[in-house]
Amino acid sequence: MPSRQNLIGLWLLLTGLCLVAGLGVLIWLEGALQPSPETRPLLWCLGLAPTVLSLLVGWQLERRLFRPLRQFQVLLARLVASPDAQGDYPVDGWLQPLQPDLDHIREGWRQDRVKIREAHAEGAREAEKIKQELEALLQVLDLPLLICDRHQRLLLFNPAAAEMFHDQPGLGLGRPLSQLLPHPSLADAIRHLPDDGTPHQLLLPGEHHWLRCQLRRLGAYHGGALITLQDTTAALEHDQRWRRTLAQLLPKLRGHCGSLNSATEALLQVEDNPTFKQRLESAIEQESQALATQVEQLTHLVEAQQLSQSALEETWSNDLCSALKAQLLQHQIRLTPIGIPAWMKVDGPALLALLQLLVRQLSSLQRIDEVELEVLLGNRRVYVDLSWDGIPLSEQQLQQWRSLPLFDEPLSPRVEDVLDQHGADLWSIPPQQPGEGPRLRLPLPASGRGIQPLQRLSPRPEFHDFSIADLPAPSGDLASLPLQQLEMVVFDTETTGLDLRRGDRIISLAACRILNGRLLADDVFDQRVNPQRAIPPESTAIHGLKDEDVAQSPPIEVVLPRFRHYVGDGVLVAHNAVFDLLALQLSESGDQSRFTMPVLDTLLLSRAIDPSLEGHGLDALAERFDLSFPPGTRHTALGDARVTAELLLLLLPRLANRGVRTLGDALELQRQIEQEQHR
């Protein structure tokens, strides 16, 4: 149906043509016929009759047909988008006889929806019962637990996991596991878990701790994995306390041995009863020597047995290199990993401490600040080579290093203890060809997995959402994904003014997330921004924000990278997106705050669906589709973003009815509307 402006223009044009033509005919007849005064009024009435008829017919059509048709169009749009909205637009004019049939269709549809809701509510009650039982069980579990789907998106996490990762923004339903635990070895291990549910152990280094992960394939339809986590830092601290206590005990034992020796010397000075004295001397001397020997053996045993073969776990060499690299930077030593990464079976914390000690000793000995680390896969061993620009190490130097303690503590394991634990040794290899430096080689146990090719993964929570597993893989072609299956981040900005290119800045940025066709209630980003300039009173009159409201807020240079991290791999959505997107782009300061993802605009989508209707602003659309702003939320970034999200969810079924089902279809529709506006 043509727009009202076009119809009115066509009507006025036709009436004007009739008037011009009628006047022209009358002027010609006046000159040709010379009518009498009695016939002139009749002649003029006949000449102006088409003009009057056009006015009457156009007015009648607008009143009886075109306006009812627009009302009918709004009624259908509202019925499709919001069937339960009250206060429907009644049709009148020549369409009024259709009202009973429309009422019947509408009421029948609403009754069917009531029955569906009742059935859904019954199913939801059962599901809620199961959910409560599951949550009650998970609430009492102290062990952090995660469940991901086959695409390694989080489906569930328990309160213990939320506590462990309380400061990590990557924790959230539907988020890639790689944002929470950015270890390629973990992603690779999950992909290669056996289908029979056999558990798999993995040790992951963190910034200040080590995480021991137990992975198990789940047999559920989503084909995901169960991950339990244990922070081994507390266990290591407990061991340290035990070693300190033992370290205090052993010197006392040595002191007793010294006392026995002193007593023996004193007895040697006793002259009475030489026979008894001789026997006593011999007994004390033998006991003292035996006690001293046993104490020394105990000391050596405690030092050597702190490391056990049972602590060897599969570790990805790149994870170890990342942790070692960070530690060496504190000593101004740059580590460069080279070669192909590989799996090895090692005691991660002990090997990390050993490598750090060797590199520091090497740096101190030869005054170097750069070392390369290469992992070579042998038959049954993995060779870890440290190479540098210097001279080869002597066997005498290596022998001295083998006796060094790993830590500056009593009873600390020595280098040779860690080597014995792994069945390894230290080899010095001179340069094999010109331009090559010397090497220090450690042959370590290899994992049965050997080398696995690593795939680069493309880079609030509700309690759990297993429907996430039904979504397509994150790495799929976004353009071909159905709109209902997209992860969409709906955002809005408030600014100091409307002239962004002349210095107006963002003062509030907020967003909410749509996942699997649902608006997540608690998953929001809401941050005020210090614009570092005054807020004009006319802008304050709209959004209510004053200078003092944002004075303590961070600047946009800090907020924007956080918002980019919140958006992740989602598709951006806004109402009149060209303004809000420009506000973001003018504030970009680097790759961490760059927005290159597709953008959907609810303003353009609404114009595409209802081109003949007037008013596509957020207020007009909210009134049309019975959407309400909670009190005080209009012209706030978060309030506008949430209503825009609800509007988008209402538009999606109508887009599908018009064949717009994928992101590519929606972007093409927006492009067409933009081209029409610029004509």
TrEMBL record:
The keyword Metal-binding does not apply. Residues 487-657 form the Exonuclease domain. Pfam families: PAS_4, RNase_T. The keyword Transmembrane applies. Residues 132-198 form the PAS domain. It comes from the Bacteria. InterPro entries: DnaQ, PAS, PAS-like_dom_sf, PAS_4, Ribonucl_H, RNaseH-like_sf, RNaseH_sf. It catalyses: DNA(n) + a 2'-deoxyribonucleoside 5'-triphosphate = DNA(n+1) + diphosphate. SUPFAM superfamilies: PYP-like sensor domain (PAS domain) (SSF55785), Ribonuclease H-like (SSF53098). Keywords: Exonuclease, Hydrolase, Membrane, Nuclease, Transmembrane, Transmembrane helix. The chain crosses the membrane at residues 7-29. Its EC number is 2.7.7.7. This is DNA-directed DNA polymerase. It comes from Marinobacterium sediminicola. The lineage of its organism: Bacteria, Pseudomonadati, Pseudomonadota, Gammaproteobacteria, Oceanospirillales.
